[in-house]
Sequence to fold (151 residues):
Amino acid sequence: MPARHLLAFVLCLACVCASTAQPTYRLDAKRDLKPRATLSLADGKVSRSAVTDDPGYRLQFRFEKDGKTIATPEARSETSVALPETAVGTYTVALELFHPAYKGGNASKGEFKAISDVLTYRVETQKPLKVSVVAPPAPAPKKAEPASPKR
Fold:
């Protein structure tokens, strides 16, 4: 009879140990991933495409006006968001992905980096809401380098 109790105790102990184990998580994404997405504007909402090479970290839209951030709504669960501000003016928005930095300490470390091109839009009227996409500025032409003298 004591052998049965000992066996039952060992089995219970094994079950408790297995149930308290923590799941393992991947600590780093592959270095060769190049996440990309595109943004579009329609009906007063900014929408994102699916993210290619997605490591699964936090996604956010960054809305700016005059170089200052006005909103950073979450973009992982929502593929489109309403414009955060509709005052007449010119705004920019980009999709950003959090890139963690694994260093010692308890504080969250890392940074957000843009994974889409910046979309510039102009709110022309509030009622009714009239919004248009502003074409990005053309890249500046490269200056020709002076020819070096022959030796």
